[in-house]
Specification:
Blueprint: H1 2-8, E1 16-20, H2 28-38, E2 42-47, H3 59-80, E3 86-88, H4 94-106, E4 111-116, E5 124-125, E6 128-129, H5 137-160, E7 164-174, H6 188-211, E8 214-220, H7 227-232, H8 235-244, H9 252-263, E9 273-276
Parallel strand pairs: 1-2, 1-4, 2-3, 4-7, 7-8, 8-9
Antiparallel strand pairs: 5-6
Helix pairs in contact: 2-3, 2-9, 4-5, 5-6
The structure holds nicotinamide-adenine-dinucleotide.
Length: 284
C-alpha cells in the first residue's frame, strides 16, 4: 500500500527526456537529470565533445573538447548510471545535431521532451565581459547561435525524425539578464538569453497548436558552481544576489524541481518564463 502510494507520486513515470549541457557533476543539467530519474523518468544525455564533423581544430579547441567529453562521459556514468545512453553533440554544427537524432532513431529512443542547458559566449574571458560596442558580428552570431537558436535546430531535427512525442515538454535555462541590466551585465550573452526566451514563446505557439508540445524557460539565480558560472561570475556577484533576494539564491535542486514540474505530462502550461531565483527578480 505504502509503495503503491509512493509510486503514484512519481511525476515522470514512463517518460524519457533528452538532456543537453552536462559537463560535470556541478552542471545544472546533471542536477536536473538526477531529479528526473528520482521522479521515475528516464534520460538520454548529449554532451559536447569531438564529433566526426569537427575540422581544423586548434590544439586549444581540441583539448577543450576532449576534456569536456571525458568529464561528460564520466559524470553520466558515475552520477546517473552506467546504462544511461550518451551521445555527442556540438550544437553549433548542423550535422552533429543530425547525427545525434539519427542515433536516437536507430536506438528507437523517442523522447517526451528535452532540457536545453547550452550556453557559450567567447566575449567573456577571465570574467571580463566585452562591451557590446566591441562585439563583432561573428561573435554575436556565434553566441546567439549556440545559446539560443540551437533550441530551434534541435527541435527541428527531432521532429524530422519523429522523435518528439505528441504532448512533449521542452525546457531551457535562462537568466534575469535577458530582461534587465544586472550588477553583472552580460551584454552579448544577455541578448542571446533574450533571444532564447523569445524563441521559447514563439515555439510554444507553433508547437502547441500543431503537436501539443509545451515550451518553457526558467531563469535561475547566479550560480558559481558550474563551469559556465565560474567562468563568468565573481563570488561578490553571487553574494550580492543572495543578499538582495527575499529568500536568498535558489539552489540547483530548486531549479531541478521546477524543471521536472514543467516536464510532467499533461500540464497545460506553455510559453512561460519562470523564475527560480529566491525572488531576486522582484527587487528594483
Ligand atoms: N551558472 C549560472 O549562474 C546560470 C544561471 C542561470 C542560467 N544558467 C544557464 O544554465 C545553463 C547551464 O549552465 P551551467 O551553469 O550548468 O554550466 P555548465 O558549464 O555546466 O553548462 C553549460 C553547457 O553548455 C555546453 N555547451 C557549450 N557549447 C556547446 C555546444 N556547442 N554544443 C553543445 N553543448 C555546448 C557545455 O558543454 C556545458 O555542458 C546555461 O544555459 C546557462 O546559461 C546558468
Amino acid at each position: 500500500m505504502g509503495i503503491c502510494y509512493l509510486q503514484s507520486l512519481k511525476m515522470l513515470q514512463n517518460k524519457r527526456f533528452l538532456i543537453t549541457g552536462v559537463s560535470d557533476e556541478k552542471s545544472l543539467a546533471l542536477v536536473t537529470a538526477k531529479e528526473i530519474l528520482e521522479q521515475g523518468g528516464q534520460v538520454v544525455c548529449a554532451g559536447l565533445g569531438i564529433t566526426r564533423h569537427h575540422e581544423n581544430l586548434s590544439s586549444r579547441a581540441k583539448a577543450y573538447l576532449e576534456s569536456n567529453e571525458t568529464t561528460f562521459r564520466e559524470t553520466v556514468k558515475t552520477q546517473l548510471g552506467e546504462d544511461i545512453p550518451v551521445f555527442l553533440l556540438d550544437a553549433t554544427l548542423e550535422n552533429s545535431i543530425e547525427d545525434l537524432v539519427s542515433e536516437l532513431k536507430k536506438k528507437q529512443l523517442e523522447v517526451d521532451g528535452f532540457l536545453h542547458a547550452i550556453a557559450m559566449d567567447r566575449t567573456i574571458r577571465n570574467k571580463i565581459v566585452k562591451p557590446l560596442l566591441d562585439v563583432s558580428l561573428e561573435e554575436f552570431n556565434d553566441t546567439v547561435g549556440v545559446s539560443a537558436f540551437s533550441l530551434v535546430r534541435i527541435v527541428k531535427h527531432l521532429m524530422n525524425y519523429e522523435l518528439l512525442n505528441y504532448g512533449s515538454s521542452i525546457c531551457s535555462l535562462s537568466y534575469i539578464a535577458a530582461e534587465k541590466v544586472t550588477f553583472h551585465p552580460y551584454r552579448n550573452m544577455s541578448v542571446a538569453k533574450a533571444a532564447l526566451e523569445r524563441i521559447t514563446i514563439e515555439l510554444a505557439d507553433e508547437l502547441g497548436r500543431t503537436h501539443g508540445i509545451r515550451v518553457n524557460a526558467v531563469r535561475f539565480s547566479p550560480y558559481l558552481g558550474s563551469k559556465a558560472g565560474s567562468a563568468t561570475l565573481d563570488v561578490i556577484d553571487v553574494e550580492r544576489a543572495d543578499k538582495s533576494s527575499p529568500l536568498g539564491n535558489a539552489t540547483p535542486k530548486d531549479l531541478a524541481k521546477e524543471v521536472v514540474h514543467l516536464l510532467q505530462p499533461k500540464l497545460r502550461v506553455t510559453g512561460e518564463i519562470r523564475h527560480v531565483d529566491g525572488g531576486y527578480h522582484i527587487i528594483g
